[in-house]
Amino acid sequence: MALQRLGNQEAQRLFLDRHALLEQPAGAAKGADLLALIHRLGFVQLDSINTVARAHDMILFSRRPSYRAKNLKRLYERDRELFEHWTHDAAVIPMAFYNHWHLRFQRDTELLRKRWRNWRRDGFEARFETVLNHVRDHGPVSSSDVGKDEKKGSGGWWDWHPSKTALEYLWRSGALTVVGRDGFQKRYDLTERVIEEHLRPGAYCDETATINWLCSAALDRLGFATSGELAAFWDTASPAEAKSWCAGQLRQGELEEVEVTQADGQLRKVFARPGTVEAATELGPAPGRMRVLSPFDPALRDRKRAERLFGFHYRIEVFTPAAKRQYGYYVFPLMEGARLAGRIDMKADRDADLLRVTAVWPEQDIKWTAARTRRLEAELERVARFAGVGQVRFSDGWLR
Predict the structure, then answer these.
(1) What pLDDT does residue 201 have?
(2) Pick from 122, 132, 189, 233: most CB atoms within 10 A?
(3) How many whole angstroms separate alpha carbon 356 and alpha carbon 134?
(4) Gap between the Cα atoms of 365 and 264, Å rounded
């Protein structure tokens, strides 16, 4: 029997809907409303680069223009509605998901102890008790508060001293919890002082139930996916575990296989819940306004998936030598409607009170019109206010 087929435009709209990008960017962006948005996304990746605003703030602003950074800080640090840990990278995650992280704590305990013996400086395991006692006696600490007499090696930024490595390990394995950041420096406290007792690591972990939740919750946020994409979403379940979960759900009739038309016309077989194809055809169009996305936006986290769906090839070039960059150090994707229409190189110059736009590169199939320029200018005015600068200034020859 032929598989149901999801057309490319319908697939794009469904994917954007699951990432809160199909509706108008509007609405309340603090307290319970902000938490509901993060719950819908699953997590928000954290990143330190601040050319315009930090990635997590840009992610939330692109969906709720009334959002401000203090709203996330309050939800995380004061209200304790979020916790910080790893998915594919560091992220803030709804506290409601915390009990599903026990498996991650267990697996990081085993994985990182082996990996960091070689990757980090020797001796970090011997610092566990000293670090824990220091936190117990002094309250929340940062990495600058421990290991003051220890020397880093010559490995650069990643070559932590043993006590810094111990802090990170104790956090990743669940003994410590990050309770906030000063600037972008993490502050750690004892998990027993932060997390309610019934949620703490060490509580019974049902591995099968956790894998089921991880895969199901990932599918809810992707709309359709391969088993590998489900495993990669939270980056806790293994590809083999996700594959087994999909096979079991398929046998039970909880999933079905469908074909999704990619941007190049090829078909890709994926898993979806029954009724997904019909639901996708009922979704309306995306708002036509232009919006700036973070390079770490959830919709772009899986670069290959975004390229297959939208025909948009994107790579961040912060680690690429300047002479070899195709675009720029930190270039933002531009979304117009349901299309990834181009990319923009810009930076907030706070000393000059300016948002400086160096260049805009439309995609090859995009004809850049005066109307598009007006939509871009309107969006950049919003971005400038968000970044705390008063004016937008375009460089000569900005349209490439």
Answers:
(1) 67
(2) 233
(3) 45
(4) 13
Q: Are 330 and 295 in contact (CB under 8 A)?
A: yes
Quick one: tokens of 48? 């330190």
Give the chain as a 3 state SS string.
CCCEEECHHHHHHHHHHHCCCCCCCCCCCCHHHHHHHHHHHCCEECCCCCCCCCHHHHHHHCCCCCCCHHHHHHHHHHCCCEEEEECCCEEEEEHHHHHHHHHHHHHHHHHHHHHHHHHCCCCCHHHHHHHHHHHHHHCCECHHHCCCCCCCCCCHHHCCCHHHHHHHHHHHCCCEEEEEEECCEEEEEEHHHHCCHHHCECECCCHHHHHHHHHHHHHHHHCCECHHHHHHHHCCCCHHHHHHHHHHHHHCCCCEEEEEECCCCCEEEEEECCCHHHHHHCCCCCCCCEEECCCCCHHHCCHHHHHHHHCCCCCCCCCCCHHHCCCCCCEEEEEECCEEEEEEEEEEECCCCEEEEEEEEECCCCCCCHHHHHHHHHHHHHHHHHHCCCEEEECCCCEC
With tokens 């923009």, the residue in question is: 344
8 Å CB contact between 205 and 196: no
What is the per-residue burial (b if ≥16 Cβ within 10 Å, else e) of 210-225? bbbbbbebbbebbbbb
pLDDT in tens, 51-79: 999 999 999 999 999 999 999 999 999 99
| 321-332 mean pLDDT | 93
Give the pLDDT confidence of 292-315 residue by residue, as tens digits.
Answer: 999 999 999 999 999 999 999 999
As to burial, measured by CB atoms within 10 angstroms (0-12 exposed, 13-18 middle, 19+ buried), residue 118 is exposed
